[in-house]
Description:
seven-stranded mixed sheet, globular, 7 strands
Amino acid sequence: xxxxxxxxxxxxxxxxxxxxxxxYPTPWSRSMFAxxxxxxxxxxxxxxxxxxxxxxxxVIASRYVDAWHVMNVAVAREHRRKGMATALLxxxxxxxxxxxxxxxxxxxxxxxxxxxxxxxxxxxFRRRGIRRGYYTDNREDALVMWKDPVPEAAASA
Length: 157
């Protein structure tokens, strides 16, 4: 399958909603996604099957003063373990790693989500701390991860 990476649009929200509800015990609401789509400080990317145009995954990141906060990454169950989340994160790094004011990246992930932690470590995130009781559904701790800014030479390549 060939995948196209492009910005999410409001018309993609029903598909985002389906993937989100299948991926997380406490899914974001559609209005939360709509809010991120509308913010100029956010990047919302989707991975789409080039043939069917079906949304297969997405990443949402928001720019803060000193970092990009990767807020949400999800891939449809039937498309997992095919490199889509990696492709989305690498594209995010390409889009955000250029120019002055380059920022690092941060995210939180459930301490029990070993697959996601391995993914984030593969793309350069490192463990930086714990947020105790971060998740509201079960008070699970969050692992805080950090990735340094993309070096200028790599960002322009």
